[in-house]
Amino acid sequence: MNSKNKETNIIRVLLVDDEQGYLNVLSNRMARRSIQATKAFSGTEAIQILRKNDFDVVVLDLKMEDMDGIEVLKVIKRMVPELPVIILTGHGSQTAAEEGISFGAFDYLSKPCELSELLEKIREAYQHQPNSDS
Amino acid sequence: MKQSVTERTAFYQILTRKITVLILMVSFFPMILTTGILFYRFNGAYKEKINAHISELVQKHTQNIDSFLSEKLGNIRYLARLFDNNQQTPRIFLQQQMTLLRNQYGDVFTDLGLVDSNGIQFAYEGPFKLENADYSNAKWFIAAKEKAFYISDVFAGLRGHPHFIVTVKVSFNGSNSLLRSTINFGAFNSLVENIQIGRTGIAFIINTKGELQTKMDVRLKDSAIMSILDPDGHKKNETIFSEKQDASGKRYLCVTSMLNNIDWIMVFRQDIGDAFRELRKTQILALVLFLLGCGAIISVAFTLPRNIVKLIASADKKSEVMNRQVIESGKLATIGELAAGIAHEINNPVAIMVEEAGWIEDLLEEEELKNTKNFEEFKRALVQINTQGKRCKEITHKLLSFARKTDSTINDVQINDAVREIVSLTAQMARYNNVIIETELHEGIPFIRISPSELQQVILNLINNAIDAMHKGGGTIKIETKISKLEKNHVVIAVEDNGPGIPKDNLERIFDPFFTTKPVGKGTGLGLSICYGIVQKMGGKIDVYSEVGMGTRFRIWIPFQEPLSEKPLNEINVAEPVSATLADK
């Protein structure tokens, strides 16, 4: 299900955030940097997309209207345990981020962050995938 | 604030008054009642006892005198009977009988005589030459001549000596005569004189006309004797008690009892004061004890409530300080939550702004845009947006960091970091007030297990106070941290300003709750008191040094655990710069 898109070497990222403006501009910028970004504007939408498509990395916001980011993280980890999830939150609360890591998140970043920093984290996660060498 | 202080003072005053009144009522009511009842009962019982005693004495003496008179009368009557059967001359008869009487009764009978119906004493035996004395005009003779027997009043008689006479009717040579005997007044008088009670208690006998029948006592006055007589007359076998007043206004007790054999009245008289002397003494003693008791109650009633209310007031103050502390920390926690919310709300739009700027930057990389006239200006503007975005992030992250620390959870705290954080939070306010905050944070200070938010609260308070003290004039606040040389295993944080300083009078009260020099509404007077409490709770101490016109320095000592062996103390000391400006004495 989560087979890596090695041939094209394009990283497939699922961006989950209820801030549409943010996801739009972020996906545009990623597209210019050979990253295939898919946008999900809510937790439920993200889960639906994940059921149909394969991704290399998920970038997840913690505070969303319909579903809490931690809950989404738990579902993702049940569906695709090896899929790395990076938490990107504007809440800035260290405890929430630490909670995310305890539920299996790869790492966390706080908004606003440099795009380069985010891309670095995505690549790092992509490299660390258990089946990255297979 | 002032109003509430006045209200509280009024409340405590009312409370003091209420307790005082309560103590006075609860103590005085039973005391007065008990003392009053006991006093009344005791007085009554004591007077009854005194009266009974006097009455008994008077009655006993009355009986004694009665029996004395009866006996003497009986003697003479017996002589009269002997005389009726007498064969001897009257003179010899009287001589013989007189000798017998003298032998029997001593000098009670002064003389014996026989008086004929004309009042001429035709026979006499006694120490005086009274043979043929004429008694026809003597009162006693007139009163006695018709009676079978008679006892006269006391009178001076022919010789001018007080005496009284007992007569019994006899028949001599066919005509009525009187056998008379003079009774020794002294012997009779001694019977009455035996009654002596106290200093003023005296007894005497008067007849129904108020004439004294015993010796005149120097303490007696005629007017006093007359006033004793009961206008309704006296009855036999009756003892009458009365309280009277003499001409000089002196009150006295008077007991009268009438003799059976003769219309004489036995009188006992004593000054009230003398009669009830012991009672009066007891009354005075009781009164003194009562007054002492009253004094004790009054002093307790006025001192105890004050002390109680003082304790209550201090307990109230303590609880109020604690309440304030809770409110203050609650306020900070609320501010923290609010800050966290705001930070989150701001971070999202800022993130979009920064990303949109980045998107424009990406687009500017395209060839056709690179050659536009304002390309460099676009670039500069985008860099500026990015920079300001980062600044926003810094601010929100500081707010969030503050929010995290508004609890009293104990953590390992690096003092220098905490100070830096507070300084950056207060930097803006300091700038507005022309105050420069300098720091001298020495390295090598170990972690301290305290509540970071409480430490920040203390330092924040000291900085705010310093800024307030310098008003708009501006100045410098210097914050120094180092390991104390004086107190082992203590960190010292010194906050020093070059403001106007604190006058000595205020300095002593500076940590007192509610003490403030700020205008009404500007300060609660609790800041330093709370700081003091927090530092105490940390196991540390806080002190203040100030000179008017020079500035003020607060120092806080906080203990830390012994550093591990790999970080010896001397290493820490070496790390301290030599140019320490705040001496830690």
UniProtKB/TrEMBL annotation, chain A:
GO annotation (BP), single: phosphorelay signal transduction system
Keyword Phosphoprotein among record annotations: yes
Pfam families registered for this protein in UniProt: Response_reg (PF00072)
Swiss-Prot/TrEMBL keywords: Phosphoprotein, Two-component regulatory system
Annotated positions of the 4-aspartylphosphate modification: 61
Keyword Ligase carried by entry: no
InterPro entries noted in UniProt: Bact_response_regulator (IPR050595), CheY-like_superfamily (IPR011006), Sig_transdc_resp-reg_receiver (IPR001789)
Domain Response regulatory: 12-126
PROSITE patterns in the cross-refs: RESPONSE_REGULATORY
PANTHER family: PROTEIN PILG, STRESS RESPONSE REGULATOR PROTEIN 1
Protein name, entry field: Response regulator receiver domain protein (CheY-like)
Naturally occurring in which organism (per UniProt): Desulfamplus magnetovallimortis
Lineage, broadest ranks: Bacteria, Pseudomonadati, Thermodesulfobacteriota, Desulfobacteria, Desulfobacterales
UniProtKB/TrEMBL annotation, chain B:
Organism: Desulfamplus magnetovallimortis
Compartments, record wording: Cell membrane
Catalytic activity: ATP + protein L-histidine = ADP + protein N-phospho-L-histidine
Protein name as it appears in the record: histidine kinase
Enzyme Commission number: 2.7.13.3
One example GO MF annotation: phosphorelay sensor kinase activity
SMART domains registered for this protein in UniProt: HATPase_c, HisKA
Transmembrane segments: 20-40, 284-304
SUPFAM superfamilies (UniProt xref): ATPase domain of HSP90 chaperone/DNA topoisomerase II/histidine kinase, Homodimeric domain of signal transducing histidine kinase
Annotated PROSITE patterns: HIS_KIN
InterPro entries recorded: dCache_1 (IPR033479), HATPase_C_sf (IPR036890), HATPase_dom (IPR003594), His_kinase_dom (IPR005467), HisK_dim/P_dom (IPR003661), HisK_dim/P_sf (IPR036097), Sig_transdc_His_kin-like_C (IPR004358)
GO cellular component: plasma membrane
Topology versus the membrane: Multi-pass membrane protein
Chief localization: membrane
This protein's UniProt keywords: ATP-binding, Cell membrane, Kinase, Membrane, Nucleotide-binding, Phosphoprotein, Transferase, Transmembrane, Transmembrane helix, Two-component regulatory system
Domain Histidine kinase: 341-562
